[in-house]
Design brief:
This protein is of the alpha/beta class. The chain is built from twelve helices and ten strands. The strands form two sheets. An eight-stranded parallel beta barrel has the order 1-2-3-4-7-8-9-10, surrounded by eight helices. It is globular and about 60 Å long. The two termini are 26 Å apart. The model is unreliable at 100-106 (pLDDT under 50).
Length: 352
C-alpha cells in the first residue's frame, strides 16, 4: 500500500468505516452486565445502538438465554433477521469463530468441526460477510492483556484463563479453500482476518490461483499471542505488503485498541472497537461500553477531519456484493501485479 503526498489529508481518504464488536463471546454477562445483551431483543437493540452511535459494520456473535455463547445456527439466523429489519443498511459480519465461548462455566473454548463451520455459508438470511481465518495459528488472546484488564472477570478464573490462553485457530487449506468457495457461491464476502504477513501471502496465492475472486477486505489483527504485535513497526511492515485496493481495518485488544485505531484513522484505514476487544477506558478507571467506544472513535476521527461512513457508504467502501469473473480482473481490481505468464501460481499448483 502506497502513501503518496497528501495521503494523510482527509479529503484524500475514504470516510471512516467503524466495525462494532459488541457481543464479546469470551465474556460472561456477569463480567459487564450493563453492556452484555442476553435476550434476543436486547441483542438486536445493541446493533441499533451501535449503528446510531456511528458504527456501520456489526461483528456478530449470539448468546443463549443463559448467557453462554450460542453454537446454534438457528440463533444466528434469528439475530441476523432481527438486525436486518431494525438497521437494514448496517453491514452484518458474522464471526467465523462462532464457538469461541465456552458452552458452560469452566468449559474449554473449542472450535466446531469444519463441516459445521461450512454451514455459515447457509445462514438465512445471509450475512454480508463472514470472517475467514487463513493458516492455523496460536490465538492466545490474553498475552497482550494486563492482570488488571481481566481482574474479577471469568477470563481470570483458572479454567477460562487456561482455555483462552491456549486457544488455537485451526485453518488448513482443506478448510479455508472450500469455505471461501462456499461463501462466494452464496454471495457472501470473505472478510479475511490477517494475523501476520504469512496469512496475507496465502490469500494472495489463493487469488492468483482463482480460489478467491472478490475484493480484498480484511482485518490486521494485532493482539499478540500468535498474531501480530500492536506496534507501528508491525503495522508499517504489513502495509508495505498489501496492494492499494485493499480495504483494511485495524484491530487490537484492551488498551492497545485506542492507539492502534488512532494510527489507522490517521492513515486512512478503518477501525474496530467494542467489548469483544476492550472493556476499559484508557486510564482503566471505568469500563467503557461498546457505544462509548464508538462515540470516541467518531470524535477522534472528526478531530482528524475525517467524516464517518454510514451504512450505505460502508457497503460501497467494502464492495459488498462485488465478485469478479476472472483471476486477471481480480488482480487488477485489488491493485496486484498481474500473474506472470507461463509460471505456476503457488508452489506446484497451476492457476485454477
Amino acid at each position: 500500500m502506497n502513501f503518496l503526498d497528501g495521503s494523510l489529508f482527509p479529503e484524500n481518504q475514504d470516510k471512516l468505516v467503524i466495525t462494532a464488536a459488541p457481543y464479546g463471546p469470551e465474556w460472561m454477562p456477569s463480567d459487564f452486565p450493563e453492556d452484555i445483551p442476553v435476550s434476543m431483543e436486547a441483542q438486536v437493540q445493541k446493533a441499533v445502538d451501535c449503528y446510531n452511535a456511528g458504527a456501520s459494520v456489526l461483528h456478530l456473535h449470539v448468546r443463549e438465554l443463559d448467557g453462554t455463547g450460542s453454537k446454534r445456527l438457528s440463533k444466528f439466523n434469528e439475530l441476523i433477521a432481527g438486525v436486518r429489519k431494525a438497521v437494514p443498511q448496517m453491514v452484518i459480519q458474522v464471526g467465523g469463530s462462532i464457538s469461541f465461548a465456552p458452552e458452560s462455566e469452566g468449559a474449554a473454548a473449542k472450535w466446531l468441526s469444519d463441516d459445521t463451520r461450512h454451514m455459515l455459508a447457509d445462514l438465512d438470511p445471509k450475512p454480508d460477510q463472514v470472517t475467514v481465518t487463513v493458516n492455523t495459528s496460536q490465538m492466545n488472546v490474553i498475552e497482550q492483556m494486563d492482570v488488571e484488564d481481566i481482574a474479577g472477570t471469568t477470563l481470570a478464573e483458572p479454567a477460562g484463563f487456561r482455555a483462552y490462553s491456549n486457544m488455537v485457530v485451526p485453518s488448513t487449506p482443506s478448510f479455508f479453500e472450500e469455505h471461501i468457495r462456499r461463501l462466494s457461491k452464496a454471495g457472501i464476502q470473505s472478510a479475511f482476518q490477517f494475523y501476520n504477513i504469512n496469512s496475507y501471502e496465502t490469500v494472495e496465492r489463493l487469488i492468483r490461483r482463482g480460489i478467491y475472486k472478490g475484493p480484498l477486505v480484511c482485518n490486521w489483527v494485532a493482539i499478540g499471542g500468535g498474531m501480530d504485535q500492536p506496534t507501528i513497526y508491525s503495522l508499517a511492515n504489513f502495509l508495505r505488503a498489501i496492494p492499494d485496493g485493499t480495504m483494511l481495518t485495524v484491530e487490537s485488544s484492551m488498551r492497545n485498541v485506542l492507539p492502534i485505531n488512532m494510527m489507522g484513522i490517521a492513515m486512512g484505514l478503518h477501525v474496530r472497537c467494542g467489548i469483544e476487544d476492550n472493556l476499559w477506558n484508557q486510564s482503566r478507571t471505568e469500563k467503557a461500553s461498546t457505544v462509548k467506544q464508538i462515540e470516541q472513535m467518531v470524535r477522534v476521527s472528526r478531530e482528524f477531519g475525517r467524516e464517518i461512513a454510514d451504512g450505505k457508504e460502508a457497503r460501497r467502501i467494502c464492495k459488498i456484493g462485488v465478485f469478479y469473473e476472472t483471476v486477471e480482473e481480480t488482480l487488477a481490481a485489488n491493485g496486484f501485479a498481474p500473474n506472470a505468464k507461463g509460471r505456476q501460481q503457488g508452489y506446484l499448483r497451476k492457476a485454477a
